[in-house]
Amino acid sequence: MGSGGGGAGGGTGGATTSGGGGTGGDGGDGGQGGGQTTASVEVTPEAGGTVSLGGTTVVVPPGAVDVATTISLMEVDPASVAALPAGYASVGPRVALLPHGQIFMQPVQVTLGHTSTAPTRVAVLRLDDEADVTWEPVVGATADATTVTYATTTFSVVTPAEAGPQVIYTVPGTANVGHLALQGNTLYWAVRHDLTHEVEVGSVNTDGSAPNVVVPLTSGFESPGALATSPTNLYFLSTVTTEQLFSVPLGGGTPTDLGSAGSQGNPDLYLGVTRLIFDGTALLYSNYASNGSMLRTFQPDGTPIATLPGIIGATSICEDGSDILYGAYEGVQRVAKTLDPTTVTTEVPSDELESFAVVVGIAQDPSNIYVLTNKSNQSSLWRRPRAGGPAEPVVPAESIAGRARGLLLVDDQLFFTVAIPAQNPELMRVDRVATNATPTTLDVANPLNLCSDGTTIFYGRGTDVVGVGKDWTP
What we know:
Elements: E1 16-18, E2 38-43, E3 49-53, E4 56-60, E5 69-76, E6 88-90, E7 94-98, E8 103-113, E9 122-127, E10 136-137, E11 142-143, E12 147-154, E13 157-163, E14 166-170, E15 177-183, E16 186-191, E17 198-205, E18 212-219, E19 226-229, E20 233-239, E21 243-249, E22 256-262, E23 276-278, E24 283-287, E25 293-298, E26 304-311, E27 317-320, E28 323-328, E29 331-336, E30 345-349, E31 358-364, E32 368-375, E33 378-385, E34 392-395, E35 403-410, E36 413-419, E37 426-431, E38 440-444, E39 451-452, E40 456-461, E41 464-469
Antiparallel strand pairs: 1-2, 2-5, 3-4, 4-8, 5-7, 6-13, 7-13, 8-12, 9-10, 9-13, 11-12, 14-41, 15-16, 16-17, 17-18, 19-20, 20-21, 21-22, 23-24, 24-25, 25-26, 27-28, 28-29, 29-30, 31-32, 32-33, 33-34, 35-36, 36-37, 37-38, 39-40, 40-41
């Protein structure tokens, strides 16, 4: 990539372009040819400079560099870099801003052309370089009908992408998507055959590729009450006469019955939906029963390890280091993973939550415990500092008019689903530091558990497996 003779005069009109036989245009537009398309210009401390390639333009202001510097734009083959995360659709080329890691002393303006018909959904995603595998959203990008613009002080690989709910896979048939689990870049989904009492589990990569049948439609079971994955196996709960724990290889096969896990099934729509966790060593399980719930732990082969019986109340659990947090009549309880009853303590007393509310979701970070509760058709979300109470309402009951489920903490935001009487269920989001907030509704969503790869929130919507960027706002 060379530099044009006009680079010292602001960089316009003197850019060098190459395009596999294409012809360079005015102001440094790249040629259109069969090879890699590039455009270059020399920018100076006194005048800055501008370079353009197709719909991409970079404007470097005076004072952004301290010595004359050649900058370049290069279109990148999408197949040569990481795929866009689920929840984003491509609406423009991948463009490398070169040299990677170039630091500017003043922000430069980058404008990318896009083809979206919904500009309010257009975001800019970036990679550090072509070897980076994680696309990250650029903060502060603004879009109009044809372009999206942002300011930066460093160069990377960028692309415009349309954020918002994106269907990853549509499950054949008419039954809704149920529980979800994520292992690497593969999503595992169960189907809710509540009326026909059947089990069906499949998988699909988060980019929508490689759909696979893990457990074909099988009669004689209840729909899975929970899913969990290890690096080799998928685990699910299903009721035959008692609730049984099953395992199957991630690639599919005949499920292995690991034995009775509890006395009866769990009514997903009324109590907790997060109740089976693989912590890297063991399976942590919570079972609801009208005569007393219990916690149990199992080896990956199904060998029982320990049981904590006699719990009264909900069945949601959350891993917290060497402990398990679980919902109970007393509020949120803590117990060591050994399930030694002498280690049980009350983490969030019930009198700090809404009276007679059921704990239906728990999440935690180094500073706080977050508790999702339900009372009749009203739900609340609470935050209690680990350093001590009282619990604070992140979302008061009157702001969630329905049965909330599936609490998930991703970075600074909390996500959950809500089954709303006489309406479509919804996926909601709220900032974890908010107080007495009204949550943002993101989409229609089946009222079960959620999962995330840290960038995208995955959920069911009818028969669709859907992903949405965690920062997207409708």
